[in-house]
Amino acid sequence: MRVELTEVEEDIALTAAKFAQKEVAPLGGEVDAGDRIPPALFELMAGLDYLGLCVPAKYGGVGLGLVARTLILAEISQRLPAVGFALQVFQLAISPIVRWGTEEQRGKYVPPMASGKSFGTMTLTEPSGGSDPRGIKTRAEKDGGIYRLSGAKCFITHSRLADIHIVLARTGAGVDDLSAFIVESSMPGFKVGRLEEKRSLRGCEYGEVIFDGCQVPAENRLGEEGEGLRIVMEAVSEYGRSGVSAVGLGIISGCLQVATEFARERVVGGKPIIEYRQIKEHVQEIEKICRGALEFLLVACRMVDEGGRADRELALAKKECSEGAFRSAGLAGEVLGGAAICEDFPVARYLRDSAALFAAAGTNEIMELIIGKKE
Ligand SMILES: Cc1cc2nc3c(=O)[nH]c(=O)nc-3n(C[C@H](O)[C@H](O)[C@H](O)COP(=O)(O)OP(=O)(O)OC[C@H]3O[C@@H](n4cnc5c(N)ncnc54)[C@H](O)[C@@H]3O)c2cc1C
């Protein structure tokens, strides 16, 4: 099934491609070396409304859909996957407040997040295993007008940069007694633990968050007690999985571009290497992966934009795009030969960054379980 883009979506993709080429592509070496995305880049993206893209205008956004967001994330990720990854977390953290928050919570938290004055996190994973959210141990004990949160989370994107955190914690003894909270970094008992040293997605920070009897006002609970898992998983499915898929799609498109150009220009044995059967097949395979990934992802996003649920389709897209990105980076590496690991080309970075996409927003083994579920 082919998804037709609207004129607005085509314009959005074109603007994003120009922005990414001008402002993001030149930063690759600097972001890798310093393991830091310059704050000025977030300001530029805020100026283009990229941080609050799917947020209703009433709360400071532009109210666009998942297809538009995907096109922007893919263009940016093609130039530098870490920037696309960092950007997709904004909407991931904002969306539960937009959908489930009270009018007070929306008015207080959404506009600063949509404009980049605040950074948000989605704080779920614990050392006991991210694949089993029902097993989380962080507790939230009600104490008069506050909840006291105790526990630790890991692998949290923007853990140190962010000041607003969507946190899943246990409010009862049953497996599903989980509730969601909006926690500010300034609340007593909130601590940031260590940042992970990583080789993938350098520049996009990722680390521990600790709740040491963290005092969270009761009015910061999101939704009712016991609704937490549904609230956060809805956001992870729609915004996390589509976001990670878009990063994968960007990597696949980047691999196609670099492999095609290199294969046409590189002359070995008296002819361009694209004329060798195996090289041509490598390029054609990346092209095929690219078409498939784009289709899976846009179909899923369009379903959501049209008001439907697409958990299964998004899981499928996430698996296709993340596996496709890793496979494409390997194939592009074969086309480039020894040049694949040189800084002049993004292929080694694509390979490193695509490895992060297997686990982000749920591992592909978990995606298989979702895909296999009966409707
Ligand atoms: C780049 C990146 C960014 C991330 N950002 C965030 C973030 O912002 N917030 C956040 O909360 N988390 C974040 N995470 C964590 C991510 O959600 C988890 O890594 C993921 O859910 C898997 O959890 P785990 O790493 O603990 O693996 P585990 O759950 O320990 O799994 C280990 C292996 O066992 C397999 N496995 C586990 N259970 C099953 C099962 N039932 N059936 C089959 N196989 C199974 C898994 O598929 C995996 O292969 C991020 C991860 C990455 C890589």
Give a summary of the structure in a few sentences.
With 375 residues, this protein is of the alpha+beta class.
What features would you describe in this structure?
The structure is a single chain. The protein is α+β, with helices and mostly antiparallel strands and 375 residues long. The chain has three domains: 7-114, Acyl-CoA dehydrogenase/oxidase, N-terminal domain (Butyryl-Coa Dehydrogenase, subunit A, domain 1); 120-226, Butyryl-CoA Dehydrogenase, subunit A, domain 2, CATH 2.40.110; 230-372, Butyryl-CoA Dehydrogenase, subunit A, domain 3, CATH 1.20.140. The protein has helices at 7-24, 28-34, 39-47, 66-79, 81-100, 103-114, 228-265, 277-305, 311-336, 347-356, 364-372, and strands spanning 120-123, 139-143, 146-157, 164-170, 178-184, 190-195, 206-217, 221-222, 267-268, 271-272. The strands form three sheets. The protein has a four-stranded mixed sheet. Strand 4 and strand 5 form a beta hairpin. Helix 5 packs antiparallel against helix 6 and helix 7 runs antiparallel to helix 8. Flavin-adenine dinucleotide binds next to strand 1, strand 3 and helix 11.
**Backbone structural class:** alpha+beta
Number of domains: 3
CATH class of the largest domain: Mainly Alpha
Low-confidence stretches: none
DSSP summary, beta strand count: 10
Q: Indicate the mean pLDDT.
A: 97
Strand order, biggest sheet?
1-4-5-8
Strand content: 15-25%
End-to-end distance: 20 Å
What's the CATH H-level homologous superfamily of the largest domain?
Butyryl-CoA Dehydrogenase, subunit A, domain 3
